[in-house]
Amino acid sequence: MSASKFIDTKRITVHVLAEMKAVGEKISMLTAYDYSMARIFDAAGIEIILVGDSASNVMAGHETTLPITLDQMIYHASSVIRAIKRCLVVVDLPFGTYQGDSRKALASAIRIMKESGAHAVKLEGGAEVKTSIERILSAGIPVMGHLGLTPQSIYKFGTYTVRAKEEEEANRLRKDAKILQKLGCFGIVLEKIPAALAGEVAQSVNIPVIGIGAGPLVDGQVLVMHDILGITKDFSPRFLRRYLNLFDEIKGAVEHYIGDVKSRDFPNEKEQY
Ligand code: KIV
Predict the structure, then answer these.
(1) Separation of CA 54 and ligand 1 centre (Å)
(2) In percent, how much of the chain has pLDDT > 70?
(3) What is the domain-level CATH number for residue 211?
(4) What is the percent of the chain where pLDDT is above 90?
(5) Spatial CB neighbours of 131, under 8 Å, sequence gap ≥ 6
(6) What's the first-to-final CA gap in the chain, in angstroms?
(7) CA neighbor of 31 nearest in space, from 58, 12, 17, 52
(8) Do 266 and 181 share a structural domain?
(9) Does 265 fall in a domain?
(10) 222 CA → ligand 1 middle, Å
(11) Do 251 and 140 lie in a common domain?
């Protein structure tokens, strides 16, 4: 593991992230949705925890990110906030809470900040959510953008395949990244786009660009916690690196426990009062 120049930094802020980009240190980001996991990730030194609306999939079992509500996001975010000491916590604005109505967007972002104690919000889209971003920023709330594959638009896309392979969509993405920077976003997530395009976008803006399935030429990487820990078993996109196989490990442990209960091995003499 290569050492971080920011190891002694007590709190990761959006300014620290900008500095990291400026000196070329890669930024690590993971999703988390609960107190116990967030505590471990923060202790490990992760720079950003994203309370992603992927909670809709991995925590609640929905097929898409669309059903999760603002109240549910606030519940997850406040659990994460209670756990962390150092990292920056970014919370996704869920589907339907910011599109098409900038006043509603601001009210949603304020609820997240006030009720969870989070440090920033993330929302999907470029030019089409410009007024929502402007209004949220006007209240002093840091905003992260999200371009490329934007899962809240899955029914428009039709599939979860790589985005911006065609020049027209790539050009729109290039322009949107510039718009997000100009508006004052502190960073951008680029999801599932060609590595060369992601690298070009990261070079073209001076705010950190964090990739997921966007190759190595960006300023940092984000993955979903359940995927890197192998809790999700059947989701194996090319961009994913699994560090554990927790589905099988946990299943094995639970099978062991069931066996011990059935055989009366548990509890033994020392495991009782
Ligand atoms: O909700 C989420 O987990 C995300 C990441 C995939 C970036 O937005």
Answers:
(1) 6
(2) 100
(3) 3.20.20.60
(4) 98
(5) 102
(6) 45
(7) 52
(8) no
(9) yes
(10) 8
(11) no
In a domain, 1, yes or no: no
Q: Among the options 25, 47, 124, 191, which is catalytic?
A: 191
177 ligand 1 Cβ < 6 A: no
Q: Is the CB of 70 under 6 A from ligand 1?
A: no
Whether residue 6 is contained in a domain is answered as: no
Q: Which residues pair with 143 in a beta bridge?
A: 121
Q: Is there a domain that residue 171 lies in?
A: yes
Distance from Cα 135 to the centre of ligand 1, integer Å: 23
Same domain, 126 and 257: no
Shared-domain flag, residues 213 and 253: no
pLDDT of residue 2: 76
Helix residue ranges, H only, the chain: 14-23, 35-44, 55-58, 70-83, 102-116, 130-138, 154-157, 167-183, 195-204, 225-228, 246-262
Instruction: List the residue whose alpha carbon is closest to atom 4 of ligand 1.
Output: 52
Structural domain total, the chain = 2
Tell me, yes or no, whether 88 and 120 share the same domain: yes
Q: Are 246 and 230 in contact (CB under 8 A)?
A: yes
Per-residue pLDDT, averaged over 210-216, amounts to 98
At residue 126 the predicted structure's pLDDT band, cuts being 50, 70 and 90, is very high
Q: Flag whether pLDDT at 1 surpasses 70.
A: no
Question: Domain check: are 215 and 263 in the same one?
Answer: no
Q: Which domain holds residue 260?
A: 247-273
Return the closest-CA partner of residue 90 out of 112, 69, 108, 105: 112
Q: What is the pLDDT of residues 229-246, one digit of tens each?
A: 999 998 999 999 999 999
Residues 177 and 231 in one domain: yes
Whether 222 is in the pocket of ligand 1, judged by its Cβ within 6 Å, is yes
Ligand 1 centroid – CA 92 distance (Å): 8
169 catalytically annotated: no
Residues 93, 208, single domain; the answer is yes
